[in-house]
Write a structure and sequence with these properties.
alpha/beta; globular; 4-stranded antiparallel sheet; 528 residues; 10 helices; 9-stranded mixed sheet
Length: 528
Amino acid sequence: MVKNKSWIFWGLIASCLGMPVIALETSISINGIDALRLHKPPYNLTGRKIAIGQVEIGRPGKFGVDKAVSKNRSLNLAGVFLRNGPAKSNSGVDPHAYNVAGVMVSTDKAFPGISPGARLYSSAVGSTKMGQPEECLSAQHIALQNSGDIRAINFSFGEPLNRDPRPAAVLDGNALLTQCIDWSSRVHNVLYAVAGNQGKGGIPIPTDNFNGVNVAFSSRRGGIFNKVDVSNLVATTEAMSLRLAGKEINLGPRRTISLVAPGSNIPLLNPDGKLNKVTGTSFAAPHVTATVALLQEFGDRQLRTKQPNWSLASRRHEVMKAVLMNSAEKIKDVGDGLRLGVTKTLIDKQNQDWFNSDAYKNPKIPLDSQMGTGHLNAYRAYQQFSVGQWNPSQPVPTVGWDYRNVNAGSYVEYVLAKPLQQQSFVSITLAWDRLVELNDKNNNGLFDAGEDFRDRGLNNLDIYLVKNDTTIADTATVCASISEVDSVEHIFCPVPTTGNYKIRVQFAKQINQATQPYALAWWTVPAR
């Protein structure tokens, strides 16, 4: 057996180590994203019948199609493709893609995936010589599988900025693949989870997307995944100098990272069935993709049994984005519930927590540059999602979510039914889409080679926590998130005094259409 041999996959490191793995180290246990709890009664969630996707340069092997996995049946794939056509037997099979798929749908008892019951469709772009049009065709092909019902697509790869054909290309959201992702998110209603690589010599396209989620990776301290790994992105001061140079950092003040998920020394099986330990954002992103499958299985169960406060809005990608980001872990609760029952404190590369973040201190900055809104927790996301959808026409519970429209120059208010507890924390997340349209030359409704997209910009929405008796004319707010450049707003703040409050979603500035769909998620603590 070859030991300690490493490969670089698009800047992401995977190491082959021939050593046993302690079960407690698993990234899907309580020390990681706490997804194993959802596999067991009373939840019994494994992603059954939920379709998710994967796009990479290569693809995982499929039993019965590829000899490379003839002795390993731990991945039961729904479909494998080469770009937008059928896969060729024994061609394009890639250990990296296999490992990524394993995070999501492995059925191995020792190393189960997060959603082992989900239906995974995977497309290989086929070669590093292929460009963004071929990558877009692959993503579109996956989005159209399962009769067009794919809930999330994993991108554990990307394009180097120096390969972008635009002159003096920068990360402004307008590379073809980035625009493709934002277009597909809206048109196909898919949440894209993208490995969050920016910095120097990375794979930053399409991490400058607006409508997906970009994922950084955590490593363990004391066996718990609670620190942004040092190899994520670049240090803050270096990031500033790179931004000034226009290199591999989002143009302007817009932040990149949405969430953090485990990605360091993740034990997985290779196509030949041998154990592999892998590291990188490649393996953090599928934690998010597969968590969507668990939540969507629950949502479909609620719809099927016609539960109150459930609608097809539960399938919206904006709802999944808001739910996952709002339920993320930031600061550990001391046991009194005032910090929303969070189980761990996430720290960045400089060992600073959320309270030291500019995102905590500045209402114009909704996301921390390294941590996004915090660390993925599948069980907390379930708690956030399972409460259901609530209409602002009547008082809403302390935890919930909604999906609806707001008109330009107007606002929607959610009155919380119960008073909030003084010094308890409020978490609120608002998510909406940038409007990207296809320049459809042949009017077939599909992206074809030779076509491109039109960026119609991002409407500006804001959120506020205000006292119940506050009118729109009153400028007094308790907390606010008022970024002018991001497609999410996020509030995490303490309640100053026990009392009655409401959440206001405001359409601050129209850039494209006069009606903007949005998803809102909130988590608060009632007065005692």
